[in-house]
Design goal:
Length: 136
């Protein structure tokens, strides 16, 4: 037996949520990139590795999804949900190390907030687009 389709939320309900989740996605993305940049430039002991190599490896995944997130593309936000898991794992592992506990918790927090905001933006954006197309 087929399930009955749930009605889509109204545009008035979706609009402020889209605005807020997009702003949170952008803020979390910038905060995560800034944290990685500051940590590696100021505090990290890289054991002789070149700073620019470490930074380019750590920031490359964020830089790949950043243009789509900046433009408000729902698919880019969905891909961000996949990419940001790397940073969450790195943050949890860093939080175990007593010398990097603050960095680890901040990285895990920023990546979790980016994941949640991007996920909600993706869901609400697709609902918004379906509603604009005339679906109810």
């Amino acid at each position: 037996m087929a399930r009955k389709a749930k009605p889509l939320p109204s545009l008035e309900w979706l609009q402020p949520r889209l605005t807020f989740s997009r702003a949170m996605s952008l803020a979390s993305l910038v905060a995560l990139a800034a944290l990685l940049l500051l940590w590696n430039l100021l505090f990290a002991d890289l054991h002789g590795a070149r700073t620019w190599v470490v930074l380019s490896i750590q920031l490359l995944p964020l830089l790949l999804v950043a243009p789509g997130v900046l433009l408000g593309n729902a698919r880019a936000h969905a891909w961000t949900c996949f990419v940001v898991n790397i940073y969450f794992i790195q943050g949890v592992l860093a939080a175990i190390d007593p010398g990097r506990i603050l960095f680890g918790w901040l990285e895990a927090l920023f990546s979790l907030s980016l994941f949640c905001a991007a996920l909600l933006y993706t869901r609400w954006r697709f609902q918004y687009d379906r509603r604009l197309a005339g679906e109810s």
